[in-house]
Specification:
The protein has 14 helices and no strands. Helix 3 crosses helix 10. It is mainly alpha-helical.
């Protein structure tokens, strides 16, 4: 049987990109990329395939809607069209409305800078979750997605592993608690590990193949 650290290393080698990276977001503790993560979170929060949400996010960003100012200024139909180009059609009209409303909230409440939200939480993840769920379309699952991804640039959020990440850990026979999982990788890599575990939980990565590769690499 492969040891846990080996399994984590193989998983990172195979699925080492966060969802933010896959959406084309150069995540950093700055207003624009943090807002882009909020947009991606909104898209991932609906009952739609992650690949479709990622494609829709890339289309929105390619259209120039990378800041809350740009998102709010865009015509509703233009947002719908961008979502459609990403094949995000089942929820396109409702989501286009939510993105516009969420952009306005980001501007009014946080002056377009989600670092203000982070500061207001004072490192309390429960407070961050509550503040995130004030955005339209983002519930508890969406708050988990945002926090799981943002821990790469907000170290005080680490280690954050949501229900899906822990389900992926169980499939791999890894410890199903954030503290123990964090001990398997470098601190800076934990966000990537959490995203990779989600891919295992969603069936985007085979737990069996990861385990076999880890065993062969011993």
């Amino acid at each position: 049987m492969p040891d846990d650290r080996n399994v984590a290393r193989v998983l990172l080698d195979r699925q080492g990109r966060t969802y933010a990276e896959e959406a084309g977001i150069s995540l950093a503790d700055r207003p624009a990329p943090l807002y882009q993560l909020l947009v991606l979170t909104t898209l991932l929060s609906t009952r739609i395939r992650a690949s479709v949400a990622l494609a829709a996010a890339r289309e929105l960003f390619a259209a120039g809607y990378r800041t809350p100012q740009a998102m709010e200024a865009a015509a509703w139909q233009d947002r719908v069209d961008a979502l459609g180009r990403g094949h995000y059609r089942r929820y396109d009209e409702r989501t286009a409305t939510m993105l516009g409303t969420g952009a306005r909230l980001c501007l009014d409440r946080w002056h377009g800078d989600l670092r203000r939200m982070h500061k207001e939480s004072d490192g309390d993840r429960a407070v961050l979750r509550r503040l995130l769920t004030e955005f339209p379309g983002i519930g508890p699952t969406g708050a988990d997605i945002f926090l799981r991804e943002v821990q790469s640039v907000w170290p005080d959020v680490r280690p954050y592993a949501d229900r899906r990440a822990l389900a992926g850990a169980r499939r791999l026979g890894l410890p199903a608690n954030p503290g123990s999982l964090a001990g398997l990788v470098r601190e800076a890599d934990f966000g990537r590990l959490a995203s990779a575990l989600v891919r295992v939980a969603l069936g985007e990565e085979s737990a069996g193949e990861v385990s076999r590769s880890a065993a062969a690499a011993r």
